[in-house]
What we know:
By secondary structure, the chain is of the alpha/beta class. Helix content is 27%, strand content 31%. The chain has 6 helices and 10 strands, in the order H-H-E-H-E-H-E-E-H-E-E-E-E-H-E-E. It has helices spanning 3-12, 21-32, 49-53, 66-74, 110-122, 166-173, and strands at 37-41, 58-63, 80-83, 96-102, 124-135, 146-149, 152-156, 159-162, 178-186, 197-205. The strands form 2 sheets. It has a 7-stranded mixed beta sheet, with helices on both faces. Strand 4 (96-102), helix 5 and strand 5 (124-135) form a beta-alpha-beta unit.
Amino acid sequence: MEFWESSFIEKQAIWGFEPTDSAILTKNFFLEKNVRDILVPGIGYGRNAKVFIDNGLNVTGIEISKTAIDLARQNELDINIFHGSVSDMPFDNKLYDGIFSHALLRLLNNEEREKFLKDCYDQLKPNGYMILTTVSKKAPMFGKGKQLDKDYFEIMEDVKMFFYDSDSIKQEFEKHGLVEFTEIDEPSKDMKNKPSINFIVIKCKKVL
Length: 208
């Protein structure tokens, strides 16, 4: 890799290259459950996907940003990544053992979340697992900015975010095989001066 390419990646990859704690926990769970073929909507430049790939899982991604896909390629992420929005799912007719998506759900409005969850659930094999992370109402950004709907805020220009609690999780996920949900404080690993953010890890299983 040329030096300029390496520098470009470092400048663009604002979250660093270390996987989130929730991705590491999900990797351990997938290995325990013999999940081998996974879909990662919102794969970004692949910092979370790499922990799955390095442990022998087959990964397919979906990403709306061509720049992020290019960064993933420059970071030697040689996997199938569909270029498009999760609102256009499904991109193939394949069923997966598992689905993992970090921090994407929070960016969707009510209708988009409903479609996204249904599309993910529909692409699971029987007994497959869907693990999504999203931001809790305990996060410091909750209530900031302009309120657009219940628990949905434009926290800064063009950044809209939905915040979950136990009631909204049960309401949206019980029909999609909700198994459990747990809170996790995700540290900002590449930004040491930034506080950790309270996320919720939501686990669902497709039982027919």
